Structure prediction request, 147 residues.
Amino acid sequence: MLEVDQSGKIGDTKNPTILAYSNHIEKAIFIPATVKRQCVQILRSQGMSGGTMYLFIFVRGLYLLLADALTDGEIVLIDEEYPGHEREIKQQLLNLCKRDGISVEPSNIRFGRIGKKSNAHYLALGTLQGARKPTCQIGLDELMGIM
Prediction:
């Protein structure tokens, strides 16, 4: 099972966000604050509002992080970053996978509390603090290209 954690809130557009997974394999993506601000500006111009905007960005970040792992049939446990929105997050993630021809068993995407002792937590936090290097940096085109 891959555990997924976030360091740096998506809604905090003054600071970057790291989304990471870890266990037998690991990956961390870096979303710069400037990219988040640009996304927010574009989404606002399209009529999207606060919470919906941040969920949109979060799900697309998750997709960029997880697409390869989901194709391998991995079970993924995502930290509860947006309590009460798990169903919406899961549905959007499944829709993106379906659109791109990635077959995912819905039961393989789960939500729960990822503790501070999780490898994913250490990877995300360490990457945010500069102690670890991200696997990749996400640009505006990548994030917004997943419409």
